[in-house]
Design goal:
about 25% helix, 2 helices, alpha+beta, about 100 residues, globular, Alpha-Beta Plaits
């Protein structure tokens, strides 16, 4: 059973060597590697945090819309937790 989800991922681009677009594409490929079918990627740009979070002042926000099984979210969270460029991640099911 496939469900539709939306994920907001905040990227740490402080020590990024390549371009941000390459990193956004790489994260989408990681989502697909865990069984998600990415439908849409929306880069919201770099935004300042209200307060410093783990020594960061700002992050690059990206919204992913994808489909996947109910256990896909747990797999994605576990995989992206190991990625040093992913600062925060939040997922919600959409209708």
């Amino acid at each position: 059973m496939s469900r539709k989800y939306q994920g907001l991922i905040v990227l740490n681009t402080k020590s990024l060597e390549g371009s941000v677009d390459d990193l956004v594409t790489a994260i989408a490929k990681e989502l697909e590697a865990e069984g998600a079918k990415v439908e849409k990627t929306n880069s919201l740009g770099r935004r300042q945090f209200a307060y410093n979070s783990r020594h960061l002042e700002a992050g690059h926000y990206v919204k992913y819309t994808f489909q996947g099984a109910p256990d896909t979210i747990t797999k994605i969270q576990d995989r992206l937790r190991l990625n040093g460029y992913v600062h925060l991640q939040h997922y919600q099911r959409i209708a």
